[in-house]
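Lecture 7 notes: from sequence to structure.

We start with a single chain of 230 residues. Read the sequence below before looking at the structure.
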Amino acid sequence: MIKRFAPWLRWVPLLLLVWLVGQFLEGPSYRAIVRSGLFMVMVTGVTLLACQAVYRLKNYPPLLGVIYTLITAGGFLWTIQHFYNGGKDSTYYWPLLFWSLFFLFNLLVYILSLFVSQRFWALLYSRGRKKSKSIRSYRLWLYAIKEDGSRGGIRYQAEGVKPLPETIVLSGYSQDQLIDLEPCWQQIEVQQLESLKKEELVCETIIKFGEALQLRERFELEIQVNYGEA
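Now the structure, written as tokens:
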């Protein structure tokens, strides 16, 4: 259920931004706007989602993105709230300009991530680098994860050549469950990995005795690839 609505949730900061711009144009107190919860959610959301877009290319530690968000979003919010504090405090003009550059950069990356495909991001990132190789063949396995965290039996396996599969389809109680492989292929190709392991969480909502229950199942995905010259 969460994965189903996640792509739409990415648009929430943009909708908040449009609404807040309208508030600025209507002329209410700027101090009230920049101190509102919606403004802080918008700034934080834009920064986090910009970090997520870069993470898909660079695969840096997620903690790094959290730290970057705390510093840049926090710095921008702190200075703009002090700048619009019962007027315009010129003392904070240059600090606000400095942190605004970070916010505008984050906003640009976030908006591009909404309208530009991941394939284009990967191509843009890899352009100008040393000659890369393309995936010639692959093998993949999907293992169930037991309650104690250890690897269980194989739920799915496949091997072949291009075109690379976009999803894994698993049978659910009420409908088929999909695991998106597109980010995995992108990460493998951009970083020229020979193997990749990652955990996948599949969620399904069922109705039992008139109540909605969410079933969660953890899997470990393992992919091995062979390369050929691009």
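The CA atoms of residues 133 and 229 lie 5 Å apart. Keep this in mind for problem set 3.
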